[in-house]
Amino acid sequence: MRTSVQEMIAQSKGKKNKKFIEKIIPWILLLIASVSVLTTIGIVLTLIIETITFFRRVSVFDFVFGTTWLPFSNKEELYGILPLIVGTLKVTLIAVIVAVPIGISAAIYLSEYASETVRRIVKPVLEVLAGIPTIVYGFFALTFVTPLLQTFFPEIKIFNAISPGIVVGIMIIPMIASLSEDAMSAVPRSIRDGALAMGSTKFEVAWKIIVPAALSGIIASVVLAVSRAIGETMIVSLAGGSTPKFDGDFAGSIQTMTAYIVQVSKGDAGYGTTIYYSIYAVGFTLFLFTMLMNILAQYVSKRFREEY
């Protein structure tokens, strides 16, 4: 069958177009992939530049080691960030105490005890918690959890560290449960069958065999959840208060790093003032915390990873 000259030209053009598309697609995909990298670089540069401006006005030593945070003082503005860090760690500690046992227990149940039907129902319901807006969690902490706690412990103030800590813990449960369950489910079935054949109970298999085998994934999920708790904003802003304190009191008002950023961003400070630049210094400190937590999560995943 003969091919006309016009058909040969059309085929040649089609091949050229395909080659052109094949050459240009990798560059398009590279550009798309670079958006997140460039965005991260832009954020980091902005934080660094504005933070340097802040440290031209405030001593780095006073900022890092100072135990008093009074940016709105009429006499002398003090920018010791330790009270904000302590407030953040108070909430995070309570969140971890609440979330880790519940999250890992839920993961063990879903991985080792629940039937396939129950798993298909319970896991999505658990993950719905992650989709609830944090401002809803904040009002829940302020209007329900705090009054409930005051019923049993009258000394707890309306703004405190315990209530937001509990609710932040509830919020990060799905992250721990889901990621831990994925890590446990990745453990081969043959290991479970071997342990059961040796006479172990189902709980012994889950606790002494599956959990250690999936330890890297479990620890990574906890570290990522802690990073999420450190960066939480609306819950601590609504239920934690705005009183930075460098003490061990959990029942009184506190202020976290994110809550302070929200307070200043609402218009409490004019552009170009020291208070304005302080939010970048606090934001950079928060960025360092979350970056270190993510690096720790990656290290733990590689260090304790089991390959089957």
Structural summary, described in words:
With 308 residues, the protein is mostly helical. It folds into two domains: 5-56; 82-303, MetI-like fold. It has helices spanning 5-55, 60-65, 82-113, 116-128, 134-152, 162-185, 189-197, 202-213, 215-230, 234-239, 257-268, 274-303, and strands spanning 69-70, 78-79. Helix 4 runs antiparallel to helix 6 (162-185), helix 5 crosses helix 6 (162-185) and helix 6 (162-185) runs antiparallel to helix 9.
CATH topology of the largest domain: MetI-like fold
CATH-derived architecture of the largest domain: Orthogonal Bundle
N-to-C span: 57 Å
Radius of gyration: 26 Å
The CATH superfamily name of the largest domain is MetI-like
**Mean pLDDT over the full residue set:** 84
Strand percent estimate: under 5%
Features:
308 residues; mainly alpha; MetI-like fold; 2 domains; 12 helices
SSE inventory with pairings:
Layout: H1 5-55, H2 60-65, E1 69-70, E2 78-79, H3 82-113, H4 116-128, H5 134-152, H6 162-185, H7 189-197, H8 202-213, H9 215-230, H10 234-239, H11 257-268, H12 274-303
Helix pairs in contact: 1-12, 3-6, 3-9, 4-6, 5-6, 6-9, 7-8, 9-12, 11-12
Protein name: Phosphate transport system permease protein
Main location: membrane
Keywords: Cell membrane, Membrane, Phosphate transport, Transmembrane, Transmembrane helix, Transport
